[in-house]
Specification:
Helix content of chain A: 55-70%
Strand order of the largest sheet of chain A: 2-1-3-5-4
Number of helices of chain B: 18
Strand content of chain B: 15-25%
Shape of chain A: elongated
Largest interface: A-B, 32 and 35 residues
Mean pLDDT of chain B: 93
Number of strands of chain A: 5
Structural class of chain A: alpha/beta
Structural class of chain B: alpha/beta
Number of strands of chain B: 16
Mean pLDDT of chain A: 81
Number of helices of chain A: 8
Oligomer: heterodimer
Radius of gyration of chain A: 26 Å
Low-confidence stretches of chain B: 5-10
Largest sheet of chain A: 5 strands, mixed
Distance between the termini of chain A: 72 Å
Shape of chain B: globular
Low-confidence stretches of chain A: 68-72, 190-194
Strand content of chain A: 5-15%
Largest sheet of chain B: 5 strands, mixed
Order of helices and strands of chain A: EHEHEHHEHEHHH
């Protein structure tokens, strides 16, 4: 049985990866859609299953798909009898609509692939964000140390300890203290804090 | 900055994850968070901006959100499992009244306004008279289970126009409505502020009607909470309601309009021009053509008669089947929770749970304790009166 799957994802790379994977399996015909008029795209493709990126506001348009798909009811997450699976999908940021009422066991491998792929991409995104934050933190600490060494004639270890102590006294994270300190020092119009 | 961070660390109580959309009437939740009302009431609130109503509904249903600022018909859809799995939700307070516009492409809007003026027609009658017939007019609403869908259908029906036959209604999420109008995908839309005003400012739309023109003082957003969360954390729930009611008072005070608009315009909230937000806030415009209300006229009270009106209209347009509307309205619209929560605030609270909707042509006084509440006129555009069997008040 070949299923028609409509894939709606703004991340072209992720969509491409999923399309490849599903097409290779041979049991699915994958179409991609994007842009404002999803209702028309659904009308033309007549998919059995829609897989959609939850970050899209356009998902609201899919809620009223009954208007275009005729009598068949829209089933969300293609199998609401498995809430854990649906939770996993939501956490990964993907949602599915089963338009033709295909049984869960038939679409499950497809959805599992989508969830796994979304999870992987999310993981990469999170790692990237963490790395960026860490890099920025390091940069700010270096900057704060340089300010202290220049203005207050501290040594590098003294400057670092000074910042650590301030963070401890204010029971705040070092990163926050450093960010505020650098902002204060570099913006002379602002009054310095006691 | 450091003071705010320090304040956050002393908050206690269970985490309350509240979903919202980029809309002007998310204001009370944003104000309650940013001005520390939630914290003062002992609620550890977290605001989560969601891109779509569908996300709000799914995340409520599967427990990724505890609460949301939401359109009430969608609450019933989630309760009934009409879309996705069902989840028990309660509405312990209302958030806003009014605030939606019917916005049409400029050429169409001018033609209709001229016709209405010349022939003495109402706007929907002028719209009906101007339809060509070969191509149904395409209008956008923000979600199938939205107040917008119900209000627009109600308004069109007063001129004999029916969605599906004379007008093609399609779902266009609010943040996409302006783009869809500009590109010609739709000829107009009904959406919440600030999107109508943004269309006007971009020169791609004209507001031909607002919520007030369809139903004066029409209920708009409500605060919905997962019933299980409300049961597990009764004190925090009361605190959250108090914080939102206090924030509603703030948002309703004309002198606060520019503060509220500036706060909402931040990138992490609406991320749009603060002047577009300002125009529909109380006190934000000298002659507003669209207005949200957040406190006055018992705007925060969860009226059971509002619930029943929504359910009647949902049934009218086949959005729900045959259900026990009275039972569902009483289960979801929890005036008892509202009364218990706001008691320490000393504000006036309505004595009844329902009122006759659309029965007042002029300002009137609502029976309330400790003293009556000044109400404004509340007519429907067709002059109908929606009167439910009066239910005994539950205290």
């Amino acid at each position: 049985m070949a299923l028609t799957i409509l894939l709606i994802d703004t991340d072209a790379e992720r969509a491409g990866a999923l399309e490849d994977k599903l097409s290779q399996s041979g049991f699915a015909r994958v179409l991609r859609a994007e842009g404002p008029d999803l209702a028309t795209a659904v009308e033309q493709a007549k998919p059995d299953l829609i897989i959609v990126d939850m970050a899209l506001p356009d998902r609201d348009a899919l809620e009223d798909i009954r208007a275009v798909s005729g009598a068949s009811p829209v089933v969300m997450f293609a199998g609401t009898d498995d809430p854990e699976f649906a939770q996993e999908a939501i956490a990964a940021g993907v949602c599915s609509y089963n338009l033709s009422g295909v049984a869960l066991q038939d679409v499950r491998p497809i959805l599992a692939s989508a969830v796994a792929l979304f999870q992987r991409y999310r993981h990469v995104e999170t790692e990237l964000a963490t790395a960026k934050a860490l890099l920025n933190e390091r940069r700010l600490i270096e900057r704060a140390k340089a300010i202290l060494m220049k203005n207050r004639k501290m040594s590098e270890p003294e400057a670092y300890r000074w910042l650590q102590k301030r963070a401890m006294n204010e029971s705040r994270k070092l990163a926050q203290v450093v960010a505020d300190f650098v902002a204060e020092e570099e913006n002379p119009r602002r009054e310095s804090k006691p | 900055m450091s003071d705010i961070l320090a304040l956050k660390s002393v908050r206690s109580g269970p985490r309350l994850r509240i979903g919202f959309l980029r809309l002007t009437d998310s204001a009370p939740a944003i104000v309650a968070q940013e001005f520390g009302y939630f914290a003062e009431e002992g609620v550890d609130a977290e605001l989560l901006e969601e891109p779509s109503w569908a996300n709000i509904a799914d995340k409520l249903a599967y427990g990724f959100l505890d609460a949301a600022v939401i359109v009430p018909p969608l609450v019933f859809a989630v309760e009934l499992g009409t879309r996705g799995i069902s989840q028990r939700l309660v509405i312990p307070c209302n958030i806003s009244q009014g605030g939606n516009t019917v916005t049409l492409a400029p050429v169409l809007a001018r033609r209709i306004q001229e016709k209405a003026e010349k022939e003495g027609f109402s706007v929907p009658h002028a719209l009906a008279a101007g339809l060509s017939g070969d191509q149904p007019l395409a209008l956008g609403v923000v979600h199938a289970y939205s107040t917008h869908n119900l209000l627009l259908r109600y308004w069109l029906a007063t001129a004999g126009l029916h969605a599906g036959r004379d007008v093609r209604l399609s779902v266009v999420p609010p943040a996409r409505a302006v783009e869809a109008l500009a590109s010609g995908q739709i000829a107009g839309f009904c959406a919440g502020a600030p999107w109508g005003e943004i269309a006007v400012r971009q020169g791609v739309g004209i507001n031909v009607a607002s919520s007030d023109d369809i139903w004066r003082t029409a209920p708009e957003k409500a605060f919905a909470v997962r019933e299980s969360w409300a049961q597990d954390h009764p004190d925090s729930l009361k605190g959250a309601v108090r914080a939102l009611v206090r924030a509603g008072q703030f948002c309703d005070a004309p002198e606060n309009a520019s503060y509220t608009a500036a706060l909402l315009s931040r990138q992490k909230y609406l991320g749009v021009d603060s002047h577009a937000i300002l125009s529909s806030l109380p006190g934000g415009a000298i002659a507003p053509d669209n207005l949200s209300r957040f406190f006055r006229g018992a705007a925060t009270f969860p009226w059971r008669s509002h619930a029943l009106w929504f359910l009647e209209q949902m049934a009218r347009w086949d959005l729900i089947g045959n259900i026990d509307a009275q039972g569902l309205a009483a289960r979801v619209y929890r005036s008892d929770l509202y009364r218990a929560a706001v008691a320490p605030l000393g504000i006036s609270v309505p004595l009844a749970d329902s009122k006759a909707e659309g029965a007042h042509d002029s300002p009137w006084q609502l029976d309330a304790a400790p003293k009556s509440i000044a109400m404004s006129r509340d007519r429907f555009c067709d002059g109908a009166i929606f009167n439910v069997v009066p239910a005994p008040a539950s205290f």
